[in-house]
Request: fold
Amino acid sequence: MKTEVNQMQEQPIPDRLKISPFLVFYLIMSMQIGIGVLSYQRVIAKDAGYDAWISILFAGGCIHVILWMIYKIAETVDGDFVTAHKYLTGNLIGKTISSIFIGYFFICLSYNTNIHRGHSSVDVSGA
Reply:
């Protein structure tokens, strides 16, 4: 029995079955975003009632416009937002603005994670 356990521990994991660190990061971020996207309808319906469908359509349209602007900015500077901030405001101020955005998104991430932990249980009693 011990030899079978030792043989199982000695076998390396094939490269085709390993996940790169970038994909692990992408997987975690996708799960975080997915939780927020899948639960926002419940939050809106709870606060605004069931006639809030127009606000959802309006928000979706605004997000499409904002994403289009993001792609145009990234295309103009041939890079990402850090490059865009440096291009527009200089090296020091650009890095400062980028740091503020990074801090803001980490605060939002921790806030959303804590909120969704509290809503992870489902109340089926109807009360």
